[in-house]
Write a structure and sequence with these properties.
It is a single chain. About 45% of the residues are buried. This protein has helices at about 10-15, 20-35, 45-60, 65, 140-165, 250-255, 310-325, 335-344, and strands at about 5-10, 35-40, 80, 105-110, 180-185, 205, 210-215, 225, 230-235, 240-245, 265, 270, 275, 275-285, 290, 310. It is built from eight helices and 16 strands. It has one domain: B-lactam Antibiotic, Isopenicillin N Synthase, Chain (Jelly Rolls, Sandwich). Strand 8 (about 225) and strand 9 form a beta hairpin. The structure holds 2-oxoglutaric acid and fe (ii) ion (FE2). Fe (ii) ion binds near residues 206, 208, 263 and 281. 2-oxoglutaric acid binds next to strand 5, strand 7, strand 11 and strand 14. It comes from Klenkia sesuvii.
């Protein structure tokens, strides 16, 4: 059964008219209870999603040896990641149940130093320049989507600020040169290329790392989230909705009033092969040098912070070393405990 993720219409924050307080209250409830939201009223032209999908289809259809030309070193979160080159569960320090890497392939683009001329000297490779495949129309379609996803992410941080009782521009002070990355995911396996057993994992269980993720996904099933009742639930976006989920930075800021919900991807197997599925996750992570510690309003009298302060850059780098370079992250014990509890 498909689990229904709460729907929040953010149009008052996009158009400037409407009841913002009601939106902020609905967002607070969704973030406390589920940590995943279907956002409508975001104002993104559906043609841009179609363009993104077409660009992804054109790139991922290339033969593996051509796609390999856009691989980068594991520490550079850009370009092409072939199937089985990453393991998301290692981002929070847990071996995958099958000890196999995830079978998704991806193409990553991100905000580069050249996007932030007002902030010279940003560290590399955090703000690496992008590598673009020579697929006609790819760069234009992806850049158009990236800009809109970034606009929606920034609108969401205004909703979050209101929902948390902060000044509406609170997040601006930690997102002036935000580490933003779009990961375009393709879940596909050639028929007969693998043993299809129960352990096949499109993308291993993980939490996202930053402030907020804006996720476009097609409606092929496969995305599952760890629901408040402790069970994994299938999630599929309603027509036109964008899925939005919270990352670890927000969990740390709120001392777990809001959670970075665990999720994973297991596309269905039909006629001996997996049903192809696509998604594109826009990660709005915050400035590399922003220090993440609990917001004063999120600590009750006598309550202790659950996390030590960390910079966005340190936190994201430890997670990426896990997923991209296979270096088990030992600094994510609270997220790892949730995974292990779900495995029973
Ligand atoms: O494919 C999906 O729907 C989810 C992708 C995801 O969780 C990610 O890229 O972090
Ligand atoms: Fe994710």
């Amino acid at each position: 059964m498909t689990f229904v993720v709460p729907v929040v219409d953010i149009s008052p924050y996009v158009t400037g008219t409407g009841d913002r307080a009601a939106v902020a209250a609905a967002m607070d409830a969704a973030c406390r209870e589920v940590g995943f939201v279907q956002v409508v009223g975001h104002g993104v032209d559906p043609a841009l999603a179609r363009g993104l999908g077409a660009a992804m289809d054109a790139f991922f259809a290339l033969p593996p040896e051509r796609k390999a030309a856009w691989r980068t070193a594991p520490e550079v979160n850009r370009g092409y990641s072939p199937p089985r080159s990453e393991s998301l569960s290692l981002s929070l320090g847990v071996e995958s149940a099958s000890r196999m890497n995830d079978f998704f392939e991806a193409f990553n683009v991100g905000a580069a130093q050249s996007d932030y001329p007002h902030a010279p000297g940003l560290p590399q490779p955090d703000y690496a320049e992008n590598t673009w495949p020579d697929v006609p129309g790819f760069r234009g379609a992806v850049e158009a989507w990236f800009a809109e996803a970034a606009r929606v992410a920034r609108a969401l941080t205004r909703v979050f600020a209101d929902a948390l009782g902060l000044p509406v521009d609170f997040f601006d002070r930690m997102t002036g040169h935000s580490l933003d990355v779009l990961r375009m995911n393709n879940y596909a396996l050639p028929p007969g290329s693998v043993e299809l057993d129960g352990e096949l994992t499109g993308m291993g269980e993980h939490t996202d790392y930053g402030i907020v993720t804006v996720l476009w996904a097609d409606q092929v099933p496969g995305l599952q989230i760890l629901a408040p009742d402790g069970g994994w639930r299938d999630v599929s976006p309603a027509d036109g909705a964008l899925l939005v989920n919270l990352g670890d930075v927000t969990t740390r800021l709120t001392n777990e009033r809001w959670r970075s919900t665990l999720h994973r991807v297991k596309p269905p197997v039909v006629d001996g092969t997996v049903l192809r599925r696509r998604s594109a996750a826009f990660f709005h992570d915050g400035d590399v040098d922003a220090v993440v510690s609990v917001l004063p309003g999120c600590l009750a009298p006598g309550e202790d912070p659950k996390y030590l302060p960390v910079t966005v850059g340190e936190h994201v780098a430890a997670k990426l070393r896990g997923s991209r370079a296979g270096v088990v992250n030992t600094a994510a014990d609270r997220e790892a405990a949730r995974v292990l509890a779900a495995r029973g």
